[in-house]
Design a protein that fits this description.
The chain is of the alpha/beta class. It contains three helices and five strands, in the order E-E-H-E-H-E-H-E.
Length: 137
Amino acid sequence: MFYPDVPEGFSPPMRHMDRFTGLWDPATYAGESWVAVQATQLDDEQARTTTQKRRILDGWIELLSAGDAPITHLFLASRVPQRLLDAVSGLPNLRFLDVKWGPYEDLSPISGLHGLEAIHLGPRGGDDRQQRRLPRR
């Protein structure tokens, strides 16, 4: 189990970290609605080879983009590549999204998440002003 960093002074629901189920292996997802996902930056105990790490990331992308996971609160707790952020668009019930950081460029996939009530986007290559560039609905 991992424990994601909580930014100082962060407001709800991150103060409720005990509600989040921390997962790195998509095969262990069991329908939880509050999920903290570590799909990248895995320890050797979790995945030793590049192939194993790619399969884990691909598994999360498949699970999130399928459109049937009942996730309402999602914390992407490690580096978030563009294709993982794109997969989040498959979560129609998503109300809260926190992206730790990543080399993502395009935020349009999350603009279709009309139930989204709160979002935190961490730095994109050192740019912490990313929130200002969200596509308008």
